[in-house]
Amino acid sequence: MNSKERPTLGGTRIKTRKRNIAAPLDPAAFADAVVQIYLDNAGDLELVAKNIESSDLNFSRYGDTFFEASQIQLRNFSMRTPVDGFEMQVVFTGGRTQPGTTKPDEGERHPYSIIECEPKREVILPSVIYIQKILRRRPFLIKNLENVMQKFLQSLELFEENERKKLAIFTALAFSQKLSGLPPETVFQPLLKDNLVAKGLVLSFITDFFKEYLIDNSLDDLISILKRGKVEDNLLEFFPPTKRSNESFSEHFSKEGLVALVEYNEKKIFEVKLKEMKSALTTQITEEVDISEVIENVKVRVRDAKLPDIEVVRVLWDVLMDAVQWSGKNQQQNANSALRQVKTWAELLNTFCTTGKLELELMYKVQMQCYEDAKLMKLFPEIIRSLYEQDVLAEDTILHWFRKGTNTKGSPASIICKCMAKASSHSTSNNGPHAFDAAFVRRAAVLADKSAGLTSPHPNFGCVITTPTGAVASEAYLYAQGTTPAEAQAVAAAGELCRGATAYLNMEPGDCHGDHAAVSALVQGGVKRVVIGMRNPLQHLRGNAVRALRSQGLQVDLLGEDLTSKVMEDAQKACILVNAPLICRAASRVPFSVLKYAMTLDGKIAASSGHASWISSKQSRNLVFELRGRSDAVIVGGNTVRKDNPRLTARHGGGHMPIRIVMSQTLNLPEEANLWDMSEVSTIVVTQRGARRSLQKLLASKGVEVVEFDILNPRDVMEYFHDRGYLSIFWECGGTLAAAAISSGVIHKVYAFVAPKIIGGKNAPTPVGELGMVEMSQALNLIDVCYEQVGPDMLISGFLQPLPDILPTIPSLDETYAVDPTVSPYESSIIFFYKTWDPYGALSNFSPHPIQMPDENGDNVTWLSVEHYYQAHKFIGMDDTLARDSIEKIKSAKSPEEAAKIGRSMQRKRPDLVRPDWDNIKIDVMYRALKCKFSTYPHLNTMLLSTTGSVLVEASPHDLFWGGGRDGEGLNYLGRLLMKLRSEFLGESSSSCESPSIAV
């Protein structure tokens, strides 16, 4: 027996630890402090924002009070402040409100109000933009904004009619400006109060909301918001009960000028009726109801709903095939089941296939069924034969189909029949999804992603060309920046098959090189139709190619504009995802940022001791290597460097190696680390200005680039790397830096690898540190969440910012012209150029313009770009096998990017192979290559001359020799050489590619 005294039931009174007692809530004092900031800054929103940002106010405790006192509590006072020639009305009111009401409370107030201002968007918009800035810095406040907006929308009856209109304008602008993830249900659900609806207040409010929102946005954007608000299918609930009918809906919104909304509602009614018929038909076929009863039921529904015959045929076939019990393995069983279904219900099909056009449509549906599943392709002729034997299809119809639509060199099961498309185009209704168009656009998106991991991120383009019969003629994708456009490659590969063909593109072609290569290739190749997944999001390119193609007589169909359906939405989403980094660049000043972490099942990223190797499986780690290769750079914090000493390489034996970035405020980093090894890839350290000068000097001696910031924070760092041309950043940092990045609003997507392990430990670190959130309602919800098993682990991924917020507003009308980069609003200006997809991309060394230059023997040699020529000349003349091999590798490099990579890597590893006079002649080498390029291509010469009067600056923030530098400290030799050439061309000195050495 243990002699130790056993505890008794009475136990022992244990002295508890003294707790930190939170200060009592005092929203009144908080509100007065906020009001004072507005008063002190006289309504200047920029100053107000800065002072609020630098204040020590506790926003996590008083979020609702902040918005009530400063943003949405819209009463009492009004003051107009002239700004830039018009009166800007600030959204703020006054101060505190009485609990549970919108009635102002006692206390100091400030004289700004939306309710008393003019009901104009230009008056209210600045305040919406200001709120956006606040939410970007403190994203957790979005929940408080939701709470306050719900309160006011539920109290609409307390506002005057004119005041409600202003509130509707404010709400519409909030969504139009994509106010930091504000969920639509915040607006629509509180409105559905019986008393508000019955009085017509909701209908009036929602009408003003629709009219204002549609000024800057398309109907598709509005429908997207309604879907997210869960009201798309019940818009009639906004109407008073006495007017809740489709007739009232059409009459009201037609009178208000919202005809597009009326047409959309009519389309929805049609789809509902079609869905109801499909549901009833499915039930009857599944229950094997007598065929005569089924036919009569369909006739009644067709008559009552006025459904077009062609839609009925489509529904009949879909329902019949959905009822087949398909086997995943036994193909003969599938064939027998399908043929049995055709024979059983042949009379039903025969009843409604009453014309040749309808019979052609049925053949089209059969082909679609077989085409989408390769295992069913052999079944196509058998089904057609069975339909013929059952008198559903006439012999003339079948002969016509094969005579007009069959490619004699291919299988009939893989052909899109041209006459089917014609028959569909004559339908009196919306034809619904065109699965072939959607499938080929998705294929283009898949192709566009094929170079991911092989080259640094760039705009992704894919192209599929199909013949008039539907056979695939060619496929291609853009390999890297500065290489041949996908469209030009596909046209060249297709040859004569391009005549009358259709080209499927994931994104509108973009040309900054002045030669319109993609558009020219499609036109000259004889392509008749172009289907585009999305418009180019870059402002200077948007709409240019669409207009150019249409002006040449090509039919251009854009998903989401000319082609709309569920299957088209899915295809367009694939196009958006493959170019999410480019879309992000167009919509903001930060690269597309992905946060990745691996954690145990109990949410730990390491043990309490800090040990973390390995949480995830080998399969997960291999996937991480692939994800790294898709990024321009990988970023970690100082703690990760100290504890893990990572390499952060892609480890795929070739391809793109992302830059390594270390973010450390104090520069408390080891003097020796794997990241300081620059033999494979470069490392950049970003830190606070003045931090550890001795370590900075040591790192610089190792070739590590150190960039200082006055105040180190994730947003400023990301804006800097945006200026360096980075499209995508991969964050593999610890919880502290991850929290700062999320709070700064720079993280767009999250990859979380969850391992089936439990480690425990209250001090064990977690993936994300303190975000200042105190309630679960403040949690940030992921959007478009995906789940994937990777080995034993579960990968959960999703967006922190919704895709519509990433996607910039893209005009759908051709009359909306893109920005012309050759037209300057100033007589004299500075023109910046850098990446090939930026304005004036043709000025870059990486532009895809081959040049012919004489070698040492006087023989002309073709170089794929100026960068190829420049990098190779680092080693020309050196009597060394490795130097000669490097020249050949550079010359045969697929892209300027690869040529630069080979040349820079060899120069870094073997500086002894670089010609000894390189520093003295490299300017002359570049000059001769540039002169040859701009002398060879007239359109480039014209572009260069169009910049007359402007200073040309290569906007490289890190190359202080060829570029302008971060703050203009660079020597900008590339820009100066181009300006020298421009002067020579204006004076027309000589068109020769030879030139003596020059001093710039």
UniProtKB/TrEMBL annotation:
The catalytic activity of this protein is classed by the Enzyme Commission as 1.1.1.193
Q: Name one GO biological process term.
A: riboflavin biosynthetic process
Q: Care to name a GO molecular-function term for this sequence?
A: diaminohydroxyphosphoribosylaminopyrimidine deaminase activity
Where does the W2 domain lie? Answer: 267-430
What keywords is this UniProt entry annotated with?
Glycosidase, Hydrolase, Multifunctional enzyme
Q: In which pathway does it act?
A: Cofactor biosynthesis; riboflavin biosynthesis; 5-amino-6-(D-ribitylamino)uracil from GTP: step 3/4
Q: Does the keyword Hydrolase apply?
A: yes
One GO term of the cellular component aspect? membrane
Matches recorded under SUPFAM superfamilies: ARM repeat (SSF48371), Cytidine deaminase-like (SSF53927), Dihydrofolate reductase-like (SSF53597), YbiA-like (SSF143990)
Pfam short name (any one)? NADAR
Question: Entry's PROSITE patterns?
Answer: CYT_DCMP_DEAMINASES_2 (PS51747), W2 (PS51363)
CMP/dCMP-type deaminase domain residues are 435-557
* Reactions catalysed according to its record: 2,5-diamino-6-hydroxy-4-(5-phosphoribosylamino)-pyrimidine + H2O = 2,5,6-triamino-4-hydroxypyrimidine + D-ribose 5-phosphate; 5-amino-6-(5-phospho-D-ribosylamino)uracil + H2O = 5,6-diaminouracil + D-ribose 5-phosphate
> Its family?
Belongs to the BZW family.
User: What PANTHER family does UniProt report for this protein, alphabetically?
Assistant: BASIC LEUCINE ZIPPER AND W2 DOMAIN-CONTAINING PROTEIN, PROTEIN KRASAVIETZ
Question: Know the name of this protein?
Answer: 5-amino-6-(5-phosphoribosylamino)uracil reductase
What organism is the protein native to?
Answer: Arachis hypogaea
